[in-house]
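Hey team,

Filing this mostly as a record. A colleague (T.K.) asked me to run one chain through the structure pipeline before their review meeting, and I want the input and output archived in the tracker in case anyone asks later how it was produced. No errors, nothing strange. Just documentation.

Input sequence:
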Amino acid sequence: MTTPGVVNLAQKFALFTEQWSPKIVGELNGQEVRIARIGGEFVWHAHEDADELFLVVRGVLRMALRDGDRVVREGELLIVPRGVEHKPVAETEEVWMLMFEPAGTLNTGTAASEPGGRERTVAELERL
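Output structure:
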């Protein structure tokens, strides 16, 4: 058994500047702990087999949902249930967010093969 290490999120976010390219910073129970910088809007998509947790570390996130938008501020989180279509939107210039997702979940979910989704899909995530 290995001794767990402390993950400093500020240090991890400082290692990259690209947006919409999630990075893995930990794993537990078949879940990946991911971080991402985002700006602007993403694509509408869903994850048919996975709930998704979004925790805002910096900035303001607007999660567009078909039944109305949710605003998530620093220190707040939102859980999007499996199968629910959503579109993350940065309400500030840049948003830093932490996500919990089952290992191997594509960031674009159901939009991975559609125009817009193909360009935003990151099939292999970097581990920091």
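Quick notes for T.K.: The mean pLDDT is 89. Strands lie at 23-28, 31-38, 52-58, 60-65, 70-73, 77-80, 86-90, 95-102, 126-127.
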